[in-house]
Amino acid sequence: MKCFWLLAVLPLLLLATLRPILAHSSQVNNSNRVRCLERERQALLNIKSELVDTYGRLSSWDNDESKRDCCEWSGIQCHNQTNHVTRLDLYSFGLRGKISTSLLELEHLRYLDLSQNLFEQARVPEFIGSLTKLRHLNLGSANFYRPIPRQIGNLSMLLYFDISWTGCYSENLDWVFNLGSLEFLNLNHTNLSRANNWLEAVSKLTSIKELRLHDTSLPEIPLSLLPEINGSSPLAILDLSRNPNLSNSLKLIHWFSNLSTGLISIDLSNNNMHGPILDVFENMISLEYLNLGRNNLEGGLPKYFGNLSSLTVLHLGLNYLAGDISELMMNLSGPVEKKLEYLKLYYNNLSGLLPNMSRFSSLSTLRLQGNQLSGTIREDYLQLPHLTLLHLSSNRITGPVPNLSFCSSLQHLYLAENMLNGTLTPSIGLLSRLRVLDLSVNKFLEVEFSPHWVPLFQLEYLSLRRCKLWNFPTWLKTQKRLACIDISDNEVSDMIPSWFGGIASKLIYMNASNNQIYGFFPDLRDSFLPPNSFFGTKVLDISRNKISGSVTFLCDSREWKLLDLSDNLFSGQIPDCFTNLRSLEYLSLANNYLSGEIPYSFGWLSDLTLLHLHNNTLSGELPTSMRNCTGLEMIDVGDNRLTGKIPDWIGDSFPELRFLILRSNAFYGSMPSNLCRLPNLQILDISSNKVSGAIPECLKLTQP
Ligand SMILES: *[C@@H]1O[C@H](CO)[C@@H](O)[C@H](O)[C@H]1NC(C)=O
Ligand SMILES: *[C@@H]1O[C@H](CO)[C@@H](O)[C@H](O)[C@H]1NC(C)=O
Ligand SMILES: *[C@@H]1O[C@H](CO)[C@@H](O)[C@H](O)[C@H]1NC(C)=O
Ligand SMILES: *[C@@H]1O[C@H](CO)[C@@H](O)[C@H](O)[C@H]1NC(C)=O
Ligand SMILES: *[C@@H]1O[C@H](CO)[C@@H](O)[C@H](O)[C@H]1NC(C)=O
Ligand SMILES: *[C@@H]1O[C@H](CO)[C@@H](O)[C@H](O)[C@H]1NC(C)=O
Ligand SMILES: *[C@@H]1O[C@H](CO)[C@@H](O)[C@H](O)[C@H]1NC(C)=O
Ligand SMILES: *[C@@H]1O[C@H](CO)[C@@H](O)[C@H](O)[C@H]1NC(C)=O
Ligand SMILES: *[C@@H]1O[C@H](CO)[C@@H](O)[C@H](O)[C@H]1NC(C)=O
Ligand SMILES: *[C@@H]1O[C@H](CO)[C@@H](O)[C@H](O)[C@H]1NC(C)=O
Ligand SMILES: *[C@@H]1O[C@H](CO)[C@@H](O)[C@H](O)[C@H]1NC(C)=O
Ligand SMILES: *[C@@H]1O[C@H](CO)[C@@H](O)[C@H](O)[C@H]1NC(C)=O
User: Fold this and answer.
1) Sorted alphabetically, which Pfam families does this protein's record hold (predicted)?
2) Would the CA dihedral through 469, 472, 475, 481 be positive or negative?
3) Distance 629 CA to ligand 12 centre (A)
4) Is residue 175 part of a domain?
5) What is the pLDDT of residues 79-133, one digit of tens each?
6) Average pLDDT for consecutive 10-residue bins of the chain (704 residues)?
């Protein structure tokens, strides 16, 4: 699961780091013609002087002679005739500090974007309400707190206002009443829990097209107190999601459809709604997006859904819809079939056979996981040329994996946790765009291929956990983009092939535990690993196999988060290279034949929480450097040949320690009394050592 998250988030992280570089490319114009007005230039310099520009994004804002024209400064735009500054766009400049009142000198400002900055929990300056020419005001994610200033209500020409993802709140929405030009309002993630007049405020927004009130703690409006509607608005996008007190929000839709000339997008997800889906969307022929996911809705779908001829996204996941899925799908017959692209019915109580989906000719995403679908999948029911994602995991589907080669766009195929059986056929290899293949936990499904099989796809994620696999899949040799692989809990009794080093060095997640794999694990140090190719976590679990040789391959990477090599035949010393593994949280080398001392470089594992070294032949003392591993919750070094006194520092170094297992070693001397200082200690096992003397008082109390 971690791995999915990484794949999804990676492009975002890359974007986030690239953006500042791209945005910086606006160059200063060196020509002598200076357009910028001196008064406004001074104002901008004043504004800069009160900001903390950590990333140098305002370096062009300078008094230097060559940079006189403030119209050329980063984030500034001037009017092409009057030369007044009309636009100030400081989006994602990473700024801190204060917003100067000199902003008011920019009287002709029409566009102000201060979003994605770090204004140190300041309040939004009230004087912003005096910039009366503003059309566009974005204060989102800028770390503002405290109330939204009522003065915003003075900005009667405002078309666009965003103050989402701040710590701001508003006790009532009176200030919205005058914003008759407003087309876009985003209050996502502000606190409106006391704004009992929020619906009245909405009724005053006669130009509103997009209204975002996600996670705003909106109070319920009793149906008897719905405000009067005085003329319509062009409201198209309505987002009331994640407001747990709006359990009647389905009923509010009647009111909204009286207000709006045509809703296109409605999000009521995560609103604590109960009962059946009501007849509130009937006749909404412009509706394209409907999200009712993550509620407690029951029953099926009303029949009129088949008539929603514009619907492209229907999200009903995480509810209690029940009954035969064929019946539910029958109510999706009619004009809806042509446009529907995303159908999400996951985690409901739907049962029965997968019905014929081929009539949804535009379908690209079908998520039905977490239901009780049964029977076999008919191949002709999934003739969907645009399907990119099919998720049928966690059902009770039987029979063979269907031949899906008609779904030539398929990229993600999840069939995990079903009761599929038979043999996976090479036809799966015809899915040339496939990136994710999850067939895990189908205990009767054979997933063997001939050693010469060459699939057309390049997978990024493969899980064959707990299927029927006996040989190390030779076809992996053909996979150049594999990042995550899970073949755990099979019966692979095969040698690790020599070519596997090339694959393994690129993996961010590998789980091959609980097989009979033997041979040496490839030495990853010699393989090419592009620097920072994957920042983030790496997991290697090859426990419970018969792998032998040394564990020096651990030294390759500085990003391991979990390493489990336990229950194998590893031997030799633990390499002293842990200075490179500072992200490591879990390390198990238990039940092997490792010898020598615990390396001093363990002291660098400052994130380590669980350490298992039991049942090896480790000798020497616990290195004092281990004091640095202050996050440890479990130390298990039992069944070794460790010696020395139980160090005093144990009692002082591990505030989180719950399990301390020193059993069956050659520790001697007395028990340090400061073991009593370990506030969370639950299990202390020092049996079978040569420890003598008194047991500290505190421990006696907790003896059974
Ligand atoms: C700089 O200004 C001159 C004169 O207005 C203009 O011709 C030129 O295109 C500008 N150069 C840049 C890089 O903006
Ligand atoms: C000035 O800006 C206006 C509106 O942005 C545009 O329509 C006009 O063509 C521009 N004039 C010149 C000379 O660039
Ligand atoms: C701005 O708003 C405040 C409070 O809403 C009000 O008292 C003030 O008169 C307004 N100023 C202008 C210039 O409209
Ligand atoms: C908040 O509002 C924006 C509109 O800019 C929207 O795109 C987004 O999906 C909304 N929801 C969340 C959770 O931020
Ligand atoms: C919203 O504000 C109210 C009081 O103003 C407070 O009790 C509540 O905890 C806040 N809700 C959130 C989600 O912060
Ligand atoms: C939301 O509902 C809870 C529980 O029913 C209630 O205690 C709370 O006061 C309500 N909050 C608002 C803002 O209506
Ligand atoms: C409806 O509009 C009229 C005229 O514009 C106005 O007098 C009245 O107060 C409005 N009613 C509501 C409830 O907004
Ligand atoms: C919607 O409008 C109709 C017809 O004008 C009216 O009868 C009904 O009460 C209105 N419903 C709501 C919830 O405002
Ligand atoms: C669907 O639309 C057709 C044509 O407008 C109409 O005859 C039919 O009654 C509608 N069906 C439902 C269930 O609303
Ligand atoms: C697969 O399972 C079905 C139903 O459980 C059974 O009838 C069939 O014989 C099985 N097929 C194979 C190849 O094991
Ligand atoms: C100790 O580890 C060896 C090697 O893996 C294993 O064979 C043995 O069963 C383990 N002993 C215990 C008590 O787990
Ligand atoms: C312990 O940590 C400190 C600072 O984090 C570091 O300077 C020192 O080298 C570490 N000691 C060992 C033995 O790793």
Assistant:
1) LRR_1, LRR_14, LRR_8, LRRNT_2
2) positive
3) 9
4) no
5) 999 999 999 999 999 999 999 999 999 999 999 999 999 997 778 999 999 999 9
6) 46 40 43 82 96 95 88 95 96 94 96 94 89 97 92 96 94 94 97 96 96 97 92 95 95 94 96 95 95 97 96 98 96 96 98 97 98 96 97 98 95 98 96 98 95 95 97 94 95 93 85 97 62 60 97 78 96 91 92 97 93 97 94 96 93 93 94 85 92 78 50
Tell how far the Cα of 378 is from the centroid of ligand 10, in angstroms: 15
3-state secondary structure 618-685: EEECCCHHHHHCCCCCEEECCCCEEEEECCCCHHHHCCCCCEEECCCCEEEEECCHHHHHCCCCCEEE
- Number of domains making up the chain: 1
303 CB less than 6 Å from ligand 9? yes
Q: Which residues line ligand 8 (CB under 6 A)?
A: 226, 229, 254-255, 258
The domain in which residue 86 lies consists of 36-169
Flag whether 60 is in a domain: yes
3-state SS assignment for residue 250: helix
Mutate to test the pocket of ligand 1, among 27, 31, 36, 78 (most ligand atoms within 8 A of CB): 31
C-beta of residue 172 within 8 angstroms of C-beta of residue 148: no
11-16-20 Cα angle (round to 5): 140
Instruction: State the distance from the centre of ligand 1 to the C-alpha of 72, rounded, in angstroms.
Output: 9
56 CA distance to ligand 12 centroid (A)?
33
Tell me how far the alpha carbon of residue 178 lies from the centroid of ligand 3, in angstroms. 11
Provide the CATH number for the domain around residue 87.
3.80.10.10
Residue 538 and residue 511 in contact, taking contact as beta carbons nearer than 8 Å: no
In angstroms, how far is the first alpha carbon of the chain from the final one?
Answer: 40
| 165 alpha carbon, closest ligand | 4
Question: Which residue has a Cα nearest atom 3 of ligand 7?
Answer: 230
The predicted-structure confidence for 399-457, as pLDDT tens digits, reads as follows 999 999 999 999 999 999 999 999 999 999 999 999 999 999 999 999 999 999 999 99
Tell whether 699 is covered by a domain: no
Share of the chain above pLDDT 70, in %: 92
pLDDT for residue 581: 83
Q: Does any domain span residue 84?
A: yes
Whether the CB-CB separation of 321 and 300 falls below 8 Å is answered with yes
Within 6 A (CB) of ligand 6 lie: 193, 217, 219-220, 245
